[in-house]
Amino acid sequence: MYSALKFLSSFFIWLSIVILFGGCTIPAPAPIPLTEEYAFSFEKRYMEEAEQIVAQIDKNRSVEHVVKWIQPSNKKENCKVWTGVTKTNDRTKKDSFKLFWDGGCKDGYAYGLGREIEIHDMFNSQEQVGIYKNGMADGGYCVRKYINDSSVIIVNGECNYEYKAEYTVSITSKKDPKTFNTLLSFNYGVMNVFPNLVVADEPFFGGRRLMKIYPNFAHINYDMSNNEFEDYNVIYSMKNSRFVDDGIAIVIPKANRIIVQDVSNGRVFTSYPQSFIEHISSMYSEILEAEERALVAQEKALTIKQNYLDKICKPNIKVAFMDNDKYKAICTDSEKLKEAFDKNMEMANIQKQQIREQIHRQNMENAAARQAYAAQRQAEIAQQQVFNQQIQNMNQNFNAQQQNFQLQQINNYLRYGF
Length: 418
Prior knowledge:
- This protein has one domain (3-322).
- With 418 residues, it is α+β, with helices and mostly antiparallel strands.
- A hairpin with a 3-residue loop joins strand 12 and strand 13.
- The longest helix is centred in the C-terminal third of the chain and has 84 residues, at 333-416.
- The chain has helices spanning 10-21, 36-64, 274-312, 324-327, 333-416, and strands at residues 65-70, 81-86, 98-101, 104-106, 109-119, 125-133, 136-147, 151-158, 166-175, 182-191, 196-202, 207-213, 217-223, 232-240, 245-253, 259-262.
- The relative contact order is 0.11.
- Strands 3, 4, 5, 6, 7, 8, 9, 10, 11, 12, 13, 14, 15 and 16 form a 14-stranded antiparallel beta sheet that branches. A two-stranded antiparallel sheet has the order 1-2.
- It is elongated and about 135 Å long.
- The protein starts with 9 loop residues before the first helix and ends with a helix.
- The chain is 40% helix and 29% strand.
């Protein structure tokens, strides 16, 4: 019914049914203690695969990755900008490709505070704001913006020119094809290397996914403690590359006890090793720490961006190398995000109120049904009592008639001899 719940997998729905109804068709195996060896066996198997996959990815990157120094189209003096491409996907070879730089130049390379703008084609482009030195953003922080025909992604935080960890905050704006409203999603954490440590925030319904992601599997904590419509605080699960649940799942309801269950067969464990719980908790803390570092990095990147905006977002600043309105669209990014955020929150509040009303109606209907059932049972009991009384009366009448008949027989015998 609402977007924050769409990420729940079929396993969790199935799990709820098992918990509530005990499994109506195929009974789960008998509960047993969870051993440490079995608890860690799934991750161990996936990690062995992950190490091989990551090694192959690194090898492919070293072969495929190419650095090109591109002269901006709007600069007459030498002012080259670092551009990373791959041998199989070199966007700079497209006829439609253009690169602009609006900062200074020094020793033949882009220099100082500025923005590089890449135009790939009519629908795709990307930008980067930073303080440049030798053609690259210097100081480790920048703001990037990726635009395609369906979404806009803004990435604030660390930036480097190698495949190293980057702590960033990414905000994705996407048009809903049905309502044409702008939908927002927020990711916080460390990207660019495995494992990714990511918090996917759903502020409009109070949901968060804390993920440790490898190329072939992921650990995922669904935190719904702030979602008023859910009966659980956290669900932990491990998912394979097809995003199918595997291994051991942990459910922490808002009431009752923790449930630890085998995804493959639904078996609920009677006990579990503390080392396994501590392992999950340590990953949880690791992801939250990455989120905090991303927020710090975002603050530094946004300081650079604000200095840039103060420089170019003035009525007298105009450019001739590209459409001036497109060039200055960056000046209203924050305003548009706030507008979209407020709209998303308004839509969520409307949906939440509808859900509350639906729950209230359902509760009222359930209460009315319970009252009707109770009244029906009382009527049935009263009717049964009347029926029982009627049967008792009939029995009494029959007994009386039998006694009269027997007396009549005795009288006839005494009087008439038969």
